[in-house]
Design brief:
The complex is a heterodimer of chains A (about 600) and B (about 170). Chain A has about 600 residues and is α/β, with parallel strands linked by helices. Chain A has 23 helices and 18 strands. In chain A, a hairpin with a 7-residue loop joins strand 16 and strand 17. By secondary structure, chain B is α+β, with helices and mostly antiparallel strands. Chain B folds into two domains: about 60 residues; about 80 residues, 3-Layer(aba) Sandwich (Glutaredoxin). In chain B, helix 6 packs parallel to helix 7. Classes of the chains: A alpha/beta (about 600), B alpha+beta (about 170).
């Protein structure tokens, strides 16, 4: 038994801000003080509060150190671990109470409203040690399924729980399983979609890095339910830490007889292989993903036949995403009623969101379905920083939409988001403030889909390009009102005629910004003005003569000589010569230059 | 992203070819062997010149166009060599909203190349990449395995200077 456990986050966020060095330093200092037998250092998965990384938590006290620097380590070891005095100066200040006591992390605004089911083990166990997973009831659900339940009973429980796919469209998981179970074949497959391609979403990566075994266990459960003996995890090669931990987890599960032949001596065989994606957004679409596992260009196939009938290698296949898998073991252990007691009627359970963009606490949050956007942004996320105001939250990545401030009180679940033109998607949630131009944001997503369109069907290949061209025309100041109408028409055409979800949802960013921010489009077209000052062609730099002291700094820094004026006399920018590089505004010490 | 075929002369060594042949032999006959072969070949050569793709096609007994079809489909596969230091600027949504475009501008100004290009001295190559999932640190760039987060444009010159030093 160790006297103290020091948990250091080894997720990608904290590793990027040097948590590995901290772990090394920690081990070294602990050794220097001869505490190796008393203090245990655990490299865990993501705690969720990535904005404050690197993160370190010391138990039993539960002291939460944030933004730890390597040079802080000796002090923490000597003061806290050796002498038992918590270094309050380095704690996450939200956990320090007025009377100088510390409160539990779960009482801080960031964690208080969260309910962790999918993320329950992230930041709690060492993901590279299977015994730690087993100690928190790991592989218990698989044991229960194999020894006490029939395949049909497993499907019934998952169906009754109302679990819906967390990867995008929210298809009922149990129903999907029952289709594949009903189809007879000599071979069936269970696949895991870990090709998390939505920019700004990283919950799947955090689960894989923080709790890889839960995915393996749930896939084996599904294998038993539908009668499959082989599983594939399709994971992005851009996630090296997750790939490494998954492979390690698979090897350990083999060693323990929890994967492979005759699991738990029940005669059930199930094995899992990894397949690395190579960076194609369309491969998150189920049929494209399967084509890619087959080693081909990852182009989608027309449905029907659906994968439950003809999927991977033309055999019945089910595909669920990482977060969906992370819920399955808990449903088996706690029952369908327990799961239904959380969340909303039609969307039971929780959802993990990756909060990013202009928000104070960026990171991963898991909340019950039905939590309002306002609670997520203002209470958990801590609101928009630097005195700016909330303008929109973008959910669902390039397939999703923008939610304006007027809809902040919407209760988030699959159906409510769809009803306002947004989408749950995989759960990326990017907050934008008043400095964002919504036309530019729509253009940003269209550039993404044009790049990622696989080219197989014409509506998507050509349609997205035409949409982007119209958006470029508008942001460069050459748009007409007819362009807006034509663009809208094209959006609906794309939605109806594209082969797969990528093309069908590609217009969403345009449609939702048109719906809620039409005035911005009109400002770009009619007034040739970008209200947020983002679109360069529609922005003019102007010097405020009241504020300008005539210091000549801007004129000296202008690369094209567009600024004139003499010393101590307000300067003027020649807008015809100006290339809008912004150099003058950066240099001005009196805030005299404005974008108009 | 449009892919361009490199017109630099192929400089593979016999050792590299031996390694590649071992990879091909290991995957031959496997279902879906092209992707893992290309992934491992890129690790050996750093990029995928046509010569390497031809060897893979011959080795696996599939048409070259099938291999080429796969290598041009996925953004991870590079048909042009990378610099000694590969700079990847994340243009995911979270980074974009926090000003990644300005970071990319600053880098292209500083080293004089556009994304998907390599400096003539082979020191730097530049990639505009998708989300690397470090959204909490936005905007982010990586130089080889080193991650730089919470960037502001003013920092760029200083960071690049570190890599230029000792290579001048």
């Amino acid at each position: 038994m160790y006297r103290s456990n020091v948990l250091v986050c080894g997720g990608t966020g904290c590793t990027s801000s040097n948590s590995e060095v901290i772990i090394e330093r920690l081990k070294e200092e602990i050794k220097n003080h001869g505490l190796e037998k008393e203090v245990n250092v655990v490299r865990t998965g993501c705690f969720g509060l990535c904005a404050l990384g690197p993160i370190m938590v010391v138990y039993p006290e539960g002291a939460f150190y944030s933004m730890v620097k390597p040079d802080d380590v000796p002090e923490i070891v000597e003061e806290h671990l050796l002498k038992g005095r918590i270094v309050k100066r380095l704690l996450y200040q939200e956990t320090v109470v007025d009377d100088n006591a510390i409160k539990s992390l779960n009482e801080t605004p960031f964690y208080a409203k969260q309910r962790r089911i999918a993320l329950r083990n992230c930041g709690v166990i060492n993901p590279e040690v299977i015994d730690e997973y087993i100690a928190v009831d790991g592989y218990k659900a698989l044991g229960k399924v194999l020894t006490e339940m029939t395949p049909q009973e497993v499907i019934d429980v998952v169906k009754a729980s109302g679990l819906r796919g967390r990867g995008g469209a929210g298809f009922p998981t149990g129903l999907k399983w029952s289709f594949a179970a009903a189809n007879q074949a000599d071979q069936k497959y269970v696949c895991c979609n870990a090709d998390e391609g939505d920019p700004g979403a990283f919950m799947d990566r955090s689960i894989l890095e923080g709790d890889p075994h839960v995915v393996l266990e749930s896939m084996a459960i599904a294998g038993y339910a539908i009668g499959a003996s082989q599983g594939y995890i399709y994971i992005r090669a851009e996630y090296p830490i997750a790939v490494k931990r998954l492979q390690k987890a698979i090897d350990q599960a083999h060693e323990y007889g929890l994967l492979g032949k005759d699991i738990f001596g029940t005669g059930f065989d199930f094995d899992i292989s990894l397949r690395l994606g190579a960076g194609a957004f369309v491969c998150g679409e189920e049929t494209a993903l399967m084509t890619s596992i087959e080693g081909k260009r990852g182009e989608p196939r027309p449905r029907p036949p659906f994968p439950a009938l003809k999927g991977l290698f033309q055999k019945p296949t089910i595909l669920n995403n990482v977060e969906t898998w992370a819920n399955v073991t808990q449903i088996i252990l706690n029952g369908a009623d327990w799961f239904r007691s959380i969340g909303t009627e039609r969307s039971p359970g929780t959802k993990v969101f990756a909060l990013g963009g202009k928000i104070k606490h960026t990171g991963l949050v898991e909340v019950p379905m039905g939590t309002t956007l306002r609670e997520i942004v203002e209470e958990i996320g801590g609101g928009v920083p630097d005195g700016h105001t909330f303008k929109a939250a973008q959910t669902g990545g390039p397939s999703g939409g923008c939610i304006p401030a007027s809809e902040l009180d919407i209760k988030i679940d699959f159906d409510n988001l769809a009803s306002i033109g947004a989408m749950m998607g995989s759960g990326g949630m990017i907050v934008m403030d008043d400095t964002a131009c919504m036309v530019d944001i729509a253009k940003f997503f269209l550039e993404f889909t044009v790049d990622e369109s696989c080219g197989k069907c014409t509506p998507c290949r050509v349609g997205t390009r035409r949409l982007l061209e119209i958006l470029n025309k508008i942001t460069s100041g050459n748009g007409t009102m007819e362009d807006i109408d034509r663009m809208e028409e094209l959006c609906y055409y794309l939605k109806e005629n594209s082969l797969c979800a990528l093309g069908q949802t590609a217009p969403n960013p345009v449609l939702s910004t048109l719906k809620y921010f039409r005035d911005e489009y009109i400002a770009h077209v009619k007034d040739k003005h970008c209200p947020a000052g983002v679109c360069k062609a529609l922005t003019n730099y102007v010097i405020d003569p009241q504020k300008c002291r005539g210091c000549t700094l801007c004129a000296r820094n202008c690369p094209v000589g567009a600024i004139s004026g003499s010393v101590k006399v307000p300067h003027v920018i020649d807008t015809k010569k100006c290339i809008k590089c912004g150099a003058c505004m950066e240099k001005c010490k009196f805030n005299a230059i404005e974008k108009k | 992203m449009q892919k361009r075929i490199s017109n630099l002369p192929f400089t593979g060594t016999p050792e590299q070819e031996e390694k590649l042949n071992a990879v091909i032999a290991r995957h031959k006959g496997e279902k879906g062997a092209i992707m893992p072969c290309l992934q491992e070949a890129q690790e050996i050569y750093g990029y995928l010149p046509v010569e390497v793709q031809t060897m893979i096609a011959k080795g696996l007994g599939v048409p070259l166009e099938e291999v080429f079809g796969v290598s041009t489909f996925y953004s991870q596969f590079s048909l042009t060599p990378k610099g000694k230091y590969n700079i990847s600027v994340c243009l995911g949504t979270a980074c974009y909203v926090k000003g990644a475009a300005a970071i990319l501008d600053e880098i292209t100004k500083n080293i004089g190349i556009q994304p998907e290009e390599c400096t003539p001295d082979g020191l730097f190559s530049l990639t505009a990449c998708r989300c690397i999932g470090a959204c909490g640190l936005a905007p982010v760039m990586t130089i080889n395995d080193e991650v730089y987060g919470r960037l502001v444009p003013e920092e760029v010159a200083g960071i690049l200077a570190k890599y230029k030093e000792g290579n001048a």
